[in-house]
Each structure stands twice: as C-alpha cells, then as structure tokens.
Design brief:
Largest sheet: 7 strands, antiparallel
Strand content: 35-45%
Number of helices: 3
Length: 230
C-alpha cells in the first residue's frame, strides 16, 4: 500500500507482493495473488525505520477478485499498537489502498469502495441476523464496517439468506468489552453478497455483505464507526 510498508514471510524470508487494504492496531488485511501458508509467521516492516510487527495468518477469503485472495492477519505482538509502531496514518493508508487497487484494475477509478474499517477480534460486538419478520436470529462475527454496511462471517453449515434478502440486524455490546458504553442497535438491511472460504482445517466459513437500509439507530452506528477508527 505504502512505499515504506512491506510484508515478509519468515519461513522463506521472502517479500509478499500484495496490496494492503486495512491496517488496524492489531490486524492487517492484504490482497495477493500468492497462496500463503497459515503455519508461517509474517512480518510487517516499516522500511524507513526498520521497525517490524509479527503476524499470523487468520482468515483467507479466496478469489475475492479474480485471481486475488484476501488474507487477514492478526498480531502476535499483543503489546504493540501497529499504527503507532510503524507510524501509519490510517486515512492516508486508505487512500493509498484505493489507488493501488485502481492500478491493478481491481476497481475502476470511478467506482471506489466506501471506506471500511476492520473490527478487532475481541471487540465484544455481537451481531444477530434474521430474515425480515422471522424470530430466529443467527449469530455472526463482525469482520468490518462502513457507514452504509458491514461484512459478517459465520461457521453455520446452512443459512436461510440469499442475495437481496431483506434482513433484521441486532448489534449488541459486551458489557465488559471495549464498546460497553454503546447502546444495543437494530436496523433493517439487505444481503448484498455471499461468499464462502475453505480454511486450512477444511472448515467452510461463510461471509455476508450487508447493506444498511433504514433504522432509528443509524446515528449510533455512525458513532460506533467513528469510535472504532478513532
């Protein structure tokens, strides 16, 4: 993403050619045409300062774009804030990510994605989704968010959702978690995309992209996003 950031694989001591899409205090996400191994350790380096942070591969989303996999990494240095250690400005990184994706024709110049923010694994945010009017809510993990939508994941073998399904979303917060000061939030949305990824252990993980339509709690949602990336 930036000229001063580089991702290296420790096992083979090789540079991973990639496009960074997210950098948070404890996670990174990249797009790459390479097949990466979750048994290896990876380093995110600041080439200007020779600082580095260690990561392990957490989630692979295959063929997010034709020929490109998306890899989510989690920090192995729990005492380090990646943004501080490597001197990253998150908004600058976002702009650079969009430019790199345009260069690789992953997006066209006039169709730039909405700014999305990756959610920490231990954020204590629970997501329940049901088809509109149904009583059965399915639990999901919140992967990333924007003002107009979210990406959520589930290990459920079967789900009753299809693209364009109208859904009810309930967001709740662990009272002992990082966002305990936020009120539980509900709104109506629509399933915009569905993808599956087979993990290294053979398990299948499903990802749903949800676009937010209406709801009285949308101000709470925007306040949450501002806090996540604050």
């Amino acid at each position: 993403m930036s000229d001063y950031l580089a991702l290296f694989e420790e096992q083979n001591d090789q540079l991973i050619e990639s496009v960074f899409t997210d950098v948070t205090p404890s996670t990174i996400s990249v797009l790459s045409t390479l097949q990466l191994d979750n048994k290896s350790t990876y380093y995110l380096l600041n080439k200007n300062k020779n600082d580095k942070c260690r990561f392990s591969l957490d989630v692979c989303k295959e063929n997010l774009y034709p020929g490109w996999n998306k890899y989510d990494f989690v920090s192995l240095d729990n005492n380090k804030n990646v943004l501080v250690e490597l001197g990253c400005n998150p908004m600058d990184l976002k702009e650079q990510a969009i430019q790199r994706m345009k260069e690789y024709a992953l997006i066209t110049p006039d169709i730039a994605p909405a700014t999305r923010y990756t959610v920490e694994k231990d954020a204590g945010i629970d997501v329940g989704v049901s088809t509109f009017g149904a009583r059965a809510f399915y639990e999901f993990k919140l992967e990333d968010v924007s003002k107009t939508g979210m990406l959520i994941s589930s290990g459920h073998k079967t789900l009753p959702f299809r693209v364009s399904t109208l859904v009810e979303i309930n967001i709740s917060f662990d009272k002992n978690g990082k966002y305990s000061n936020f009120k539980d939030t509900s709104f109506i949305g629509k399933v915009a995309k569905i993808k599956e990824c087979t993990l290294e252990d053979g398990k299948v993980k499903k990802f749903l992209g949800i676009s937010i339509s209406t709801g009285s709690d949308l101000d709470n949602w925007e306040n949450l996003i501002a806090d996540i990336w604050g």
